[in-house]
Amino acid sequence: MQEQSLESLPDVKSLTDAALHGDMARDLVNVVGLSATLKLVEAMGGLNIRIPLGMTAQGQARRDAFVALIGLEATTRLIGQYGGTMLYVPSCRQARVDARDQAINRERNRLASAGCTERRLVDDLARQYGLSSRHIWRILKKPVVPDTSLPSASSTVLPNASSTVLPGASSTVSACTGHRTR
Length: 182
Prior knowledge:
Layout: H1 12-19, H2 23-32, H3 34-44, E1 47-50, H4 57-70, H5 72-82, E2 86-89, H6 93-113, H7 118-129, H8 133-141, E3 163-165, E4 172-174, E5 180-181
Helix pairs in contact: 1-6, 2-3, 4-5, 6-7, 7-8
């Protein structure tokens, strides 16, 4: 199973809201900004990292690695706040899982309103998120907090739930999700 990157998650706001319940994540966002924090969490989440001062060749190399990852401005702020210390970068694992599960529920609602059967949409979601269909069923059975950001079913115009055969291919594209199936 391949874990999704943070940037590929469709609902970064809910991830951020959940992640910010941790003091370290909140502090990082205040120092380097949301985008840089998300990049740090993705690349180094769950690790204690030494924040260089950049005064030695080794420190300069580490500083350059941070610049490549989060940019010059964010690196400068990170070093200004934490330079010369060890910093724990939170993994925000539960926040990532919660955001993924919310995205799965939103996508399920969208597909159901388009006329997809539950079995079909569960299989499509399993392929889309790299999870088993059994795991998707467990996610869908968990109670969810209503999401007011969902478009109404009447405003969503989607194709019917049939599959389209691709020219010259033995696979099909699910009209429910648009993902290729075999």
